[in-house]
Amino acid sequence: MTQAIPLFTMQDNPQDLPVFIRSYGREGVTKGMHTHQMIQINYMASGSIGHQINTSEFIVSEGDAFVIPPYVPHGLVPFDNQPFTIVELEFNPEFLWSQQHAWSSMESFFDFAFIEPFLISEKEVRPRLNIPVGERKKVLESLHEIMDEYTTQEHGFLLAIKGGVLQLLVRLGRLYTQEVVETTDSNLISIHSKAIARALSFIDQNAATNLTVNQVAKEAILSKSYFCYIFKQITGRTFIEYLQEKRLEKACALLVDTTHLISDIALTVGFSTVTHFNRVFKQKLHISPRQYRNLYSK
Fold first, then answer.
1. Which residues pair with 157 in a beta bridge?
2. Which of 41, 122, 181, 287 could be a cystine partner for 89, CB 3.0 to 4.6 Å?
């Protein structure tokens, strides 16, 4: 019998408030897959961690911001003993707007104004936004100001938090827009999202083969050079980076769920040599394939 995925509400937090914020590392990770009724914004202040959304797995690293919408199954998987810090902010939708508005009536506004670029699901093109290095301090300062208000709870703190959350969402939205639209057409996403979605699906299905950027560009019906540019703008990753991440995600699953030789797994997921596989694996996950298997094998 399949075990039910836990659902968390605001009442599960330490205080009866419409907003919650914390900064945590390994000791604060919620174990296993779970969902929640609230919108949750996460920012990787340092380190990296595995993140599973529905049936998809991603690697999120320092500078990545990602949003978990309500009722989306997800879970975090720390890598070995590698330290990391996540700032987690969650709130009920009605906290930012009038209590008389239900989530369904505000959904289009949220999508249009702030949340749509960051929503994480199997159907979305983009699983996270990597904050430019020069902007990370500002994002952290915004989060820390919200956390200070939440901790001290001085007179008017909820109003101050509401203003801080809105300001943060605007900042993230602007950073996203700047990254995608800079020096190009403002309709970049709407024009090319379907082409890149086809490319991502093609990569996912053929990641274990000797896949080339020319093959994927042809699938997207774009020239190689333009495809590479659009792909990076929309996904935040180069073609090679994304392909390696998909191969590593599959490799991690095989390391945990099978007893196959590591050399065989390397070839199975698409790496030409086990040496290259080991090097990329350790570079991305900060741990060797053998250590990963020893830690997480069932």
1. none
2. 41
Confidence of residue 179 (pLDDT cuts 50, 70, 90): low
Residue 102's pLDDT is 41
Looking at the chain, the whole-number percentage of residues with pLDDT higher than 90 is 36
Sign, CA dihedral 251-255-257-258, equals positive
Instruction: Tell me how far apart the 2 most distant CA atoms of the chain are, in Å.
Output: 62
Which residues, including other chains, have CB under 8 Å from residue 134's CB and lie 6 or more apart?
A: none
Q: Please write the tens of the pLDDT for every residue from 40-97.
A: 889 999 998 988 877 777 788 899 988 887 777 889 988 877 899 999 999 887 787 6
Q: Which residues lie closer than 8 Å to 272 by C-beta, 6 or more apart?
A: 210
Amino acid code (one letter) for 283: Q
Domain boundaries along the sequence of the chain: 7-181, 188-236, 241-296
- The CATH number, out of the four listed (3.50.80.10, 2.60.40.1230, 3.30.70.100, 1.10.10.60), of the domain defined by the range 241-296: 1.10.10.60
φ/ψ of residue 64, rounded to 5:
-85, 135
Report the CATH fold assignment for 7-181.
Answer: Jelly Rolls (2.60.120)
CA distance 5 to 44: 24
Strand order across the 129-130 sheet: 19-24, 85-91, 39-46, 64-68, 129-130
Contact by Cβ (8 Å): 102, 34: no
Helices within 182-212 (DSSP H only) = 188-206
- Tell me the two tokens of residue 251: 């490799």
Query: 188-206 vs 157-181: helix axis angle to the nearest 10?
Result: 80
Residue bearing tokens 């699901």 = 121
Contact 9, 39 (CB under 8 A): no
